[in-house]
Amino acid sequence: MAAAAAAGSGTPREEEGPAGEAAALQPQAPTSVSGARLSRLPLARVKALVKADPDVTLAGQEAIFILARAAELFVETIAKDAYCCAQQGKRKTLQRRDLDNAIEAVDEFAFLEGTLD
């Protein structure tokens, strides 16, 4: 069965629903892959940034991991939006103005307006 083969591989798998239909593909976290990194950002650096805040006294490892993952997703999202702006200008290289355009175009990035000045 394909679902059993993909269970520990980190690949999406199908699960049978109560009526027998296949549920939506859901990514599965790798469970026993040795040397696999779950975060692309160095957790020690993220922890150092968190501890730089005087209001933070303790930060658990799970909290550090979640913050690192959130930062990765944020950077990925803004980079994709900036790349779309670069493609509109028929370029493949991101420039500062692409980030500025992405910040102006996407409402979720409104909090960043004026930060690159």
Automatic annotation (TrEMBL):
<dbReference type="InterPro" id="IPR009072">
    <property type="entry name" value="Histone-fold"/>
</dbReference>
<comment type="subunit">
    <text>Component of the DNA polymerase epsilon complex consisting of four subunits: the catalytic subunit POLE and the accessory subunits POLE2, POLE3 and POLE4. Interaction with POLE3 is a prerequisite for further binding with POLE and POLE2.</text>
</comment>
<dbReference type="InterPro" id="IPR050568">
    <property type="entry name" value="Transcr_DNA_Rep_Reg"/>
</dbReference>
<dbReference type="GO" id="GO:0003677">
    <property type="term" value="F:DNA binding"/>
</dbReference>
<protein>
    <recommendedName>
        <fullName>DNA polymerase epsilon subunit 4</fullName>
    </recommendedName>
</protein>
<feature type="domain" description="Transcription factor CBF/NF-Y/archaeal histone">
    <location>
        <begin position="40"/>
        <end position="103"/>
    </location>
</feature>
<dbReference type="GO" id="GO:0046982">
    <property type="term" value="F:protein heterodimerization activity"/>
</dbReference>
<keyword id="KW-0539">Nucleus</keyword>
<dbReference type="InterPro" id="IPR003958">
    <property type="entry name" value="CBFA_NFYB_domain"/>
</dbReference>
<comment type="function">
    <text>Accessory component of the DNA polymerase epsilon complex. Participates in DNA repair and in chromosomal DNA replication.</text>
</comment>
<dbReference type="GO" id="GO:0008622">
    <property type="term" value="C:epsilon DNA polymerase complex"/>
</dbReference>
<dbReference type="Pfam" id="PF00808">
    <property type="entry name" value="CBFD_NFYB_HMF"/>
</dbReference>
<feature type="region of interest" description="Disordered">
    <location>
        <begin position="1"/>
        <end position="36"/>
    </location>
</feature>
<feature type="compositionally biased region" description="Low complexity">
    <location>
        <begin position="19"/>
        <end position="30"/>
    </location>
</feature>
<dbReference type="GO" id="GO:0006261">
    <property type="term" value="P:DNA-templated DNA replication"/>
</dbReference>
<keyword id="KW-0238">DNA-binding</keyword>
